[in-house]
Amino acid sequence: MNITFCCTNTKAEPWLQGLRAALPGAHVEEWSPGAPSADHAVVWAPPQQFFDEQSQLRGVFNIGAGVDALLKLRLQAQASVVRLDDAGMSVQMAEYVCHAVIRHFREFDGYEADVKTGKWSYRKPRSRADFPVGVMGLGVLGERVARALRVFEFPVNGWSRSAKAVEGVRGFSGAAQFNDFLAATKVLVCLLPLTPDTRDIMRRETLSRLQHGGYVINVARGAHLVEEDLLALIDSGHLCGATLDVFRTEPLPGGHPFWQHPQITVTPHTSARTLREESIAQIAGKILALEQGQAIAGRVDTLRGY
Ligand code: NAP
Ligand code: GLV
Question: What is the C-alpha to C-alpha distance for residues 283 and 276, in angstroms, rounded to an integer?
């Protein structure tokens, strides 16, 4: 069995060594133009030339959860496209979002500023009931985040395409219930895949429907958010801030207003990183399962876009 590895912005050697150790019977090589046809590919943002040349692939394993960049390419129809299915990401995402929600709710940003000026002052305790959190996307990551927020006793709303029951979470589904979901939410968390249906989903019209004093946490993709609309709604006082891990242009360009904005916290697309060992173990297990004709989790519906 031949496996080809083509991941931009990733050091190949540790992945090649790990894949060889996990699949001792396989021949694993880094792709270069003109390389022989492989049976499976492990990829992140490969060039179109990769798919144009690799016409015999049975499995294409993306070393991330989001496949929006991959699905922009012309893929071979016969290959199963498989995304990372948690592989250590959901706990990181739960940490990140709970941290952002709690930092905002407990006003730790205000305390940090006070400490810098030597000020000792208390803020009044706030009620969780006034901070309902709405998680858009209740998939592998969103469901874990919603459950983690419930542990801290926040009221949690969840919105997904199909109806989904998560204990303790008020469920909304489909376009028909989107406005009700927004109206019931003060802190909005985006964990949707980027598809034609979800691009620009956080824009003036939708963000205006959040409860007054709303807060936005985007950990999915930058193109879910219309950045100028967020800034305008913070300026108007309808929203009081945001924590953003993803941006329409990454790295976030120097001079972008988000860098210095006092109500916006920026991190460099790091909320849930791909963990190499966990990912290799998962991908190797799925390659073997596919070869034996078994069903595997994490197959992408390329028409649906996630
Ligand atoms: P997932 O398992 O595919 O879950 C996607 C969820 O979104 C599902 O609940 C799905 O509904 C819902 N959804 C999709 N389209 C929708 C629509 N039009 N309306 C309403 N709900 C819709 O994805 P995941 O593994 O949780 O990951 C989510 C995203 O997080 C990824 O696509 C990626 O972009 C992002 N991500 C970011 C980082 C980072 O470091 N910032 C790391 C990993 C992932 P159904 O349940 O009904 O299908
Ligand atoms: C990271 O953004 C991922 O999609 O895994």
Answer: 10
Question: How many C-beta atoms surround the C-beta of residue 276 within 10 A?
Answer: 16
SS3 content of the chain, % helix, strand, coil (to 5): 35, 20, 45
CA distance 128 to 186: 11
CATH number at residue 39: 3.40.50.720
* Residue 23 Cβ contacting ligand 1 at under 6 Å: no
Domain range for 196 is 89-266
Q: Is 269 a catalytic residue?
A: yes
Q: What is the pLDDT of residues 218-262, one digit of tens each?
A: 999 999 999 999 999 999 999 999 999 999 999 999 999 999 999
Mutate to test the pocket of ligand 1, among 85, 93, 161 (most ligand atoms within 8 A of CB): 161
What's the CA gap between 62 and 77, in Å, rounded? Answer: 16
Domain count, the chain: 2
| Nearest CA, atom 1, ligand 2 | 64
Q: Is residue 304 part of a domain?
A: no
Atom of ligand 2 nearest to the CA of 221: 2
Check whether residue 116 and residue 150 sit in a common domain: yes
pTM value?
Answer: 0.98
User: Which residues in 25-34 are b (16+ Cβ under 10 Å) and which e?
Assistant: ebebbebeee
